[in-house]
Amino acid sequence: MTDTAPRPTLEAVAARAGVSRATVSRVVNGGDGVREPLVARVRKAVEELGYVPNQAARSLVTRRHDAVAVVVAEPETRVFADPFFALQLRGISKELTAHDNQLVLLLTEGRDDHARVARYLAGGHVDGALVFSLHLDDPLPGLIQRAGIPTVFGGRPGWSGDRRGVVYVDSDNRGGARDAVRHLAGLGRTRIAHITGALDQTSAVDRLDGYRDVMVDADPRLIAEGDFTPAGGEGAMRELLERCPDLDAVFAANDLTAAGALRVLREFGRRVPDDVAVVGFDDMLPVAEQTDPPLTTVRQDIEEMGRLMARLLLRAPDRRAAEQGVGAAPSSVVLPTTLVRRASA
């Protein structure tokens, strides 16, 4: 065993720099009122001694924790299996890291987790929360609002109640869906089916509405409900082929759903795109480029959505500033989508 060397203290830094402890504290915590030559001496002493600020003590001074909670309203089996979440978390992580903030990941496996997450957020451990993949009956928005911390949501709000001050980042799901269906119609397809996502989420509802905007008189049997997973796509595709064997195109609510649908079409001997054209949504490259055939899909910039969520949260005025009327709340952002053409349609 070896003895652990004592951590350098503020007093040690002050002695090395030849300044007061209060001056070191102001420099380390980003305070004003210290002349630049003294700032340079303190920073040099910090580097020479390897001083690392005590985060707990620093938080008492700054009332900031340099940590952000990322709350995903899905079980861990879904989060770690779906590349959508990996891309969004990567964007969030990049932006937080660039601003020297830590990411604290919180997952909600079930209803029992909601109270735990709410207690954590209200406990003063983080400076704000990024929340996504909410479902319409999810109590998290209300719980987070009562926690009283700045929050940015991923996805258009769909819950009931007061939405004043709600900030979110989303993609143009309805417009992207319209582009997908118009593309299929432009190929001469007339029996265009739609496999929805989980309809307790606004993204799935918006994509269904986009489909209906184009297919105004569509046979209701051409719509089958999925859940944004490959298994959901497989089940819905079987249901559609049983009900409407003459369908000639499918717009799937996301790429994972489309991948499941492609497997079933191949199993039933349907050639893609000759017999049935298929379009997905997301353009997640690990999925869209590896399906057989490669998937035509609607691209949304998932990683950029994560970056923007973090950026908007970091711009939000802190609680003290808000109480004093200092700093304007950021506005919500809806990103455009684009159609990416590959071999499936």
Automatic annotation (TrEMBL):
GO MF terms, alphabetically ordered: DNA-binding transcription factor activity; transcription cis-regulatory region binding
Organism: Streptomyces viridochromogenes Tue57
Domain HTH lacI-type, first and last residues per copy: 8-62
InterPro entries: HTH_LacI, LacI/GalR-like_sensor, Lambda_DNA-bd_dom_sf, Peripla_BP_I
Keywords (A to Z) from UniProt: DNA-binding, Transcription, Transcription regulation
SMART domains for this protein: HTH_LACI
Protein name: Putative LacI-family transcriptional regulator
Lineage summary: Bacteria, Bacillati, Actinomycetota, Actinomycetes, Kitasatosporales
The organism's place on the tree of life at top rank: Bacteria
